[in-house]
Amino acid sequence: NNNNKIIEDVSLKKSQTKVDKIVSTIVDKDNGNLKNKHDKKKSKEKIKNLVKDIEYNSIDEKGNKFYLLASSGKSNINNKDILDLDNVRGEITSDNRDTIYIVSDFAQFNSVNSNSKFYNNVVINYQDKQITCINFDINMETNKAIAYNDVIITDAKSTMRAGILELDLKTRDININPESAKDKIEVIAN
After folding, report:
1. How far is CA 50 from the centre of its chain?
2. What is the pTM of this model?
3. CA-CA distance, 72 to 78, in Å (whole number)?
4. With contact defined as beta carbons under 8 Å apart, do 136 and 104 qualify?
């Protein structure tokens, strides 16, 4: 009887171990499947929010016409009125001023007030000047634009390095300032 009981205990333990392994395998497969389903759901959510080949046209109450083209974009998670754009090309035209052409790696565009923040490898062509910088912000409510961080202004006569360039879109005035009072603006004649 003792031998039979020991054999039964060993058989039960082996059976329990097999059941545990099978249950463990099923749980792992289920967890894996759940994880895969969760990952697929996450990627679908990401894809759902991502839009490719964006073209945006609008005219504000002042008659400014906006045209933006981006290779992709998505809604900003902090503000639904803002679009986060990649590989951006833009034009701002008006009857009252010259067209501003803008190219940048990234931008944030506010669809309510048309304010924009362009950043990384920004190139602006305005009148006879080419302006390169890291950041370029346009506030259409105040008709002001500011280029900052490593600003270089090039025209037919000179090249200038500055900290900040302020552009009044209405009057077409340009103010070029150093980054701080200690810095100087560097001008090189062509």
Report:
1. 11
2. 0.68
3. 18
4. yes
